[in-house]
Amino acid sequence: MHRFSTGAIGIAQGNDEIFSDFSDGGDMWVGEGERLRRKLVVFDEPFRRPPIVHVGISLWDVHQNSNLRADIAAEAITNTDFEMVFQTWGDSRIARIRMNWIAFGELRYADDWDVR
Questions:
Q1: Comparing C-alpha atoms, which of 56, 116, 53 is closest to residue 86?
Q2: Got the DSSP string for 77-101?
Q3: 60 contact partners, CB below 8 Å, separation of at least 6
Q4: Within 10 A of 62 (CB to CB), how many other CB atoms are there?
Q5: pLDDT tens digits along 41-89
Q6: Which of 37, 45, 47, 82 stands the most exposed, by the fewest C-beta atoms within 10 Å?
Q7: What's the CA gap between 102 and 14, in Å, rounded?
Q8: How does pLDDT run across 80-109, given as a tens digit for each residue?
Q9: Rounded to an integer, what distance in angstroms lies between the CA atom of residue 40 and that of residue 42?
């Protein structure tokens, strides 16, 4: 469990298309090649330290004759950004994916001292 030490808690959220491969015959749609996509998300305002980030799928457009497989994650989380990651494998044919995310964590106070 993460315990916040300050009363200044920030929540950021978004909804971003990760890829759309069906119109140009991309790897996800044809079912061969690179089956992993990453998208950098930059927060509008930095957190005091890396926040807790949750990701989910908000749009998932797939071929009707293939198996549905997905592994999603938030990786490389810093106080200013993180990467949304989508991966599939096997015969899965994915036309497009949109993911939503929410980040929450401590914010800086005007009274915080940065002693270096």
A1: 56
A2: --SSEEEEEEE--TT--EEEEEEEE
A3: 68, 70, 94, 97, 98
A4: 20
A5: 999 999 999 999 999 999 999 999 988 999 999 999 999 999 999 999 9
A6: 45
A7: 7
A8: 999 999 999 998 999 999 999 999 999 987
A9: 7
